[in-house]
Amino acid sequence: MNVCVVGAGVVGLTTALELQSELRNANVTVLADRFEQDTCSDVAAGLFRPGTSFSGPTEEITRKWISDAYSYWDELRKKEYSVKAGVCQLSGYIFSSRDPAIVRNHYIEKVVPVYRPATEPELRLCPGEWKYGSFFTTILAECRLYQPWATERFLENGGQIVKVASLNSFRELQGSKYDVVVNCTGLGAKRLCSDHKLVPIRGQITKVRAPWVKTAFYADFDTYVIPGFEGVTLGGCRNYDSYNTEVCRHDTAAIRERCEALLPSLKECPRSFGKRLV
Asked: Where does the FAD dependent oxidoreductase domain start and stop, copy by copy (predicted)?
C-alpha cells in the first residue's frame, strides 16, 4: 500500500509516523510545499491546552480525541529521546480578573495529572487584581525541535518526502501511485476541499531569552508566557478571519506590554523579533 500524507506541519509529520507504526508494510510519503521553519507549526509554543470551544462530530468523540492525544504526547515524554524531540512536562497558572470560566477547561481537567483552583497566595504571584485562577500540569511539545526530530525519524523508517510547488486540488493526485491520501493541510484545506466554513485565526508571538522563567502563565486578553527548550514564547492576539501573515509592530508592542505587566522580570529581556502564526 502506498500512502500519501499531504502537509508537513506537526500534524502531518505525527500522522506519518503513526501510519508507519500501524501499517508496517505501507510505503508512506509526506508531500508538501513548506517544511519545518516555513510552517506555522514552527513558531507554536506547543503547550497541550485545547481551547474550550474545540469541537468534533460529537462530545464523546471530541473527548476521546483529546484524551488519546494527551496520552500520545505523554508517552513520548517518557522516552529516552524526549529532549531531542522537544517534549517535556510543564506546569502553569491561568489567572483572570473577569470571569471564572476563563480559568477552567472542561476538556483536560480530568485528563492532565493536575488541574486545581489556585490558592489565595498563588493569586498574588503576578501583579494584578486576579479574582480567579487555576494551576495545571500538562505537556509541552516545542515544534521547533519536534519537527526536525520527527522528519529524521520518518526518513529512518523508510519514509519519503516530496516537495511540490503547489497543489490546487486533491484531484491532481488521482491516478497517481497513492492508494490512500491523508489530508493534514490545515488552512490549506479551505482551497483543496472547497471548505468555505474554514477560516484562519491570526495570532502573533514574540520569542525572548528568559532562562529564569520555568512556569507558564496565562491571563486575560490572550496574554501568555510559555517557557520552552530554546526560549520563552510571549503572546498573543486572536484575529478572526485574518489572512495577514506579516509581523505587526503594534501587536508586538502590545504583547510585550501585557506580558511584562504579568511577569515584570521579562522587562530585563532583550527585545526580540515578532513571529506570525496563522
From this structure: 3-270
